[in-house]
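Chapter summary example.
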Amino acid sequence: MTVKRKHLLGLEELEPHEIMSFLESAKVFREVLDRPIKKVAPLRGLTVVNLFFEPSTRTRLSFELAEKRLSADTVSFTTATSSVKKGETLKDTVRNIEAMKIDMIVIRHQSAGAPYFLTRFSDACIVNAGDGQHEHPTQGLLDLYTIWTKYKKLAGLRVVLMGDAKHSRVIRSNIWGLTKLGASVAVCGPPTLLPVEMEKMGVEVYTDIDKALDGADVVNVMRIQLERQTSGLLPSLREYTTLFGITRERLKRLNKNYTIMHPGPINRGIELADDVADSDNSVILEQVTNGVAVRMAVLYLLAASEGKNVKQD
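The structure predicted for these 313 residues follows.
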């Protein structure tokens, strides 16, 4: 379980064996989370900065908890209480933070490419926690891990990614990860929420939900980004629910041992019915738990690849 890579910027650039290294390492750390004492010491003495320029609950808390479970020292940064409000640039912000002798930076930013930009002048390991509409690699990895642990494989499974593909960085990371590991991927949503020529990413594209769901093993439902729906991309949320909402009736089209996923937060009653979100086939809360293990694996493997002072527990 080794990764010869300093940064995790996206799943598009990873080889299949690298993705599997993250998943296999996450399996080990998932067992740690089930222990009475959930803390190990591999990153003791290292400092990780969480640099969040966008609002986040699950991702930010998951990274903070992963860092603490690994015994790293952590500092969390939010723009609301920083010099960014005074006009400081991203470059200057990071250079000032790095002058405090830190080892790793976890960054979420509204601009695609911000994590790549940091690698040009920072000596720290950079982890992309979501950049614009580009990628969200750790969410992609935790989704892959959740599917892999249930089915013991990814190759040959049919996975449907539902919803706002136009704005979703999660969908992009899922596509790259799933297709590299042999899954069959379909993307479904309204034509106005589907990127042009998405088929070139190696997926099937549907605007008819019933056709998309036929024979699916996994349905990963994406949030309709309400904050972006002022531009006329949807006639109404009621129409979206009627045409694309995942309901009990539509589940009949799936394979018997199907799985319902959602990266959160859920717009209940819009993209996902309550009784579907809370059903026995839903692994939404399991995704959250797995997210901590996956992020522990990412931090550990990147630090180890750089020869940082990683300690064996």
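To summarize the output: Residues 138-284 form a domain with the Rossmann fold fold (CATH 3.40.50.1370).
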